[in-house]
Amino acid sequence: MIKAKNKAILSLRGILWGGTLLLLLLALTLSAFESYYKDKIYPTVTVAGLAVGGETQSEVESYWLSQNEPFQGKRFEFRFDGQVATVSAQELDLGYDATLSATQAYLVGRSKHAFSNFYTKFLKKSTDITPYFRWNTNVLDETIDSLAQYIDIPVADALFQFNAGRVTAFRPSHEGKKVNAEETKKRFEQALISIPSMQGSIVTIPLPVDVIQPSLTTDRVNAFGIKELIGRGYSEFAGSISGRIHNVALAASRINGLLIKPGTTFSFNDAVGDISAATGYQSAYIIKEGRTVLGDGGGVCQVSTTLFRAALNAGLSIVERRAHAYRVHFYEDGGFKAGLDATVFSPSVDLKIKNDTPGYILIQTKTDTKNMTLTFELYGTNDGRQTEILNHQVWGAIPPPPPLYQEDPTLPKGVTKQVDWAAWGAQASFRYKVTRTGEVLQDEIFSSRFQPWQAVYLQGTL
Questions:
Q1: Which DSSP string corresponds to 321-361?
Q2: Given a cut of 90, is residue 448 above it in pLDDT?
Q3: Please, what's the largest Cα pairwise distance for the chain?
């Protein structure tokens, strides 16, 4: 019994010693493994399928830097119909990010997680790193945009004029062109694939350009259902300063000849566009922040007011309209009561009119700078609607405050200049009713509240 027991103890000791030696050998092996790969990439790592195990970061970096050589000296030419824009690979910073690839390869198996590291180094068959190929997207976008400036052409719908019972075009429609930036970028990426095997330094990329067809073409001149005069608006602007007269004529010309499609809403601000000195407008008096001051585009509200009256006369749906802050005598000249005005101030204040007739509506403007009158004529299809302006009232008249005199150091002493004019305050309203064979199409109240306005004079102190 004693001998058997001793043999078991000796056997257990042997196993323990053997296990200890095995663990020691494994530890020494792992230590030697880690020592060997201290500054090297682990053996299971590949970059784009290429084995890089045992290599240093600098060696991997050098390899991928060498892969950039085919791109060095290359110039990309984007071409369309004689227009060319070029950009070099150097300007694009084009090529593989060698440092990133080398760093990513080296860090495989060197995370903070021991079990993950062990699996990656000894159990996983391989870990493949995708090299990062990059270029400066901002530079590429700027190159494409620089060429698009010479190629892009806005599409233009035909503008028409009603004359002797038919519509004739005075500005023909033309198709638009626009560089397809997304497709250009795709072609650029496709061109990169062939560079390593190509000869020469120039990479030519045909620029894709989309053709945009107008929605209203000249050849459809007789297809709009424009038959007769359906509405008219009128206003007077005698006494306007030269800048205001210029602006009235300019804004009216921007709308003259435009067509409003059936079922669509016309925006005055969109139709007239930017109102500034850059687009040809001159300085004239406008209402701004509770004062009448000089500003670009003064007088444009004469045009919106006249169009508002034409739309009312035609029985159209008024989607958006706002009255002026105070009574402006121009909009009451010619025998009109207060309240038949419409102010605009882009982008917050607009005049919007919906074409709810069965046909297109053609806008015609007539500016008479000799007699200082503005006329809007709307041509379309008369569907039998009848328009009424009922119970138009003006009440609650409030006298203007006393004149205000302010010192102005920019004017010579003894000189007085009026910059704001007195106006009585009041309220106004009218009922707008449109019917067709017994059906009520519109029935609403338009109200206006005008503030009393004081005259303002500047007195020179210079």
A1: ----SS--GGGTTTTPPTT-----BTTTB--EEE--SSS-E
A2: yes
A3: 138
